[in-house]
Design goal:
This protein is an alpha/beta fold. The chain has two domains: 253 residues, TIM Barrel; 67 residues, Hypothetical Protein Ychn, Chain: A (3-Layer(aba) Sandwich). Helix content is 40%, strand content 22%. It is built from 13 helices and twelve strands. The protein is globular and about 70 Å long. The relative contact order is 0.10.
Length: 331
């Protein structure tokens, strides 16, 4: 059953830090601050529109939820909790900072029907966290993650790829450290440099250089494959397509089909590995629904194969799953 969220944005609220990459209003696309009544209106409307509510969560995104003024946080939770329970929504999802998690706040979240907590880890390198003015350490991420799991919440971790002073090795180190924490889900955000941010200033001054776009796709594709191989869902890869982000991005890895580009890279790499040193015509079976990913945007994979003297035709097979392929030589 497909999971869905009723997204409610609390733009850049609660967070005591302005991180190097952050221009939260542009990311969320929201300008106003929701009240408890706003939450009730949104949830009430969703109640009438969504037939199967059993795998739907009311999701507060955009700010550091547990760092909000306590009275305001309780106002939002109380409003949302009215719509949680039998024949209502599954629960409440929140996102927050790892240094604003403790026993007291987790007890409150449990009381008000919160089911999932996402932490903005971004990096597990203290050097990178400090350079990007995160205001917390990798140790804070580990401590908060373990506490969240002890209380029985679903744990989500968010990471960024290509941050200021982060190397490829740092990014893969972050991936490995997140895998070790065994979250239920992750979000991978390749860096998008926005106007009016510290990263924007560093980029325009030449002090911050990004990966090539193809390198970012390669790294994120490898992470996507590894997380899924380890049984960790990747619930987001790349920033959500939005007019505000596209208008305010000055550099970085923003593409409305970024995940599919990564999935195409995975298929291409697997096929090339299996056909190492071979040439000719091949028929390849792929999982059902994967044709556009295997072919690649604008048939980029097909062209890549042809340059390597490989002539590929694809056929979908409902018995295959993930990135499995079955290859037959055409004689």
């Amino acid at each position: 059953m497909k999971h869905s969220n009723i997204a409610i944005f609390i733009p850049h609220m609660g967070c005591p830090h302005l991180c190097s990459f952050c221009n939260q209003r542009n990311i969320s696309g929201e300008k106003s601050i929701p009240s408890g009544d706003d939450v009730r209106k949104i949830c009430s409307s969703a109640m009438s529109e969504i037939s199967d509510k059993s795998n739907t969560e009311i999701a507060f995104f955009g700010g550091s939820f547990t760092a909000l003024d306590r009275g305001y946080m309780l106002e939002l939770l109380s409003a949302a909790y009215d719509f949680v329970g039998e024949r209502k929504f599954k629960g409440i999802r929140i996102s927050t900072r790892p240094d604003y998690i403790d026993d007291e706040v987790l007890s409150i979240l449990k009381k008000y029907g919160v089911t999932s907590i996402e932490l903005g880890a971004q990096s597990m390198s203290d050097k990178v966290l400090e350079a990007n003015e995160r205001g917390h350490s990798a140790k804070d991420v580990k401590k908060a993650s373990l506490l969240i799991k002890q209380y029985g919440f679903e744990l989500g971790l968010q990471m960024m790829v290509g941050l200021y002073q982060s190397t490829e090795s740092d990014d893969y180190f972050t991936m490995c450290e997140i895998i070790a924490l065994k979250p239920d889900a992750v979000r991978i955000y390749p860096v998008v440099v926005l106007k009016n941010t510290r990263l924007g200033e560093l980029y325009q001054s030449g002090r911050y250089q990004l990966y090539d776009f193809d390198k970012a796709v390669e790294i994120c594709a490898n992470m996507l494959y590894m997380f899924e191989f380890m049984g960790i869902k990747v619930i987001r890869l790349g920033l959500h397509a939005s007019k505000d982000v596209s208008e305010n991005a000055v550099a970085g890895f923003y593409h409305d089909s970024f995940r599919e580009m990564c999935e195409s890279y995975i298929f291409r790499t697997r096929i090339m590995t299996l056909l190492k040193n071979k040439k000719g015509e091949f028929s390849i079976e792929i999982p059902k629904g994967s044709l556009s990913k295997a072919v690649g945007q604008k048939k980029v994979n097909i062209e890549y194969f042809r340059k390597n003297d490989l002539y590929i035709s694809f056929k979908e097979n409902s018995e295959l799953h993930g990135y499995c392929v079955s290859i037959k030589e055409v004689k």
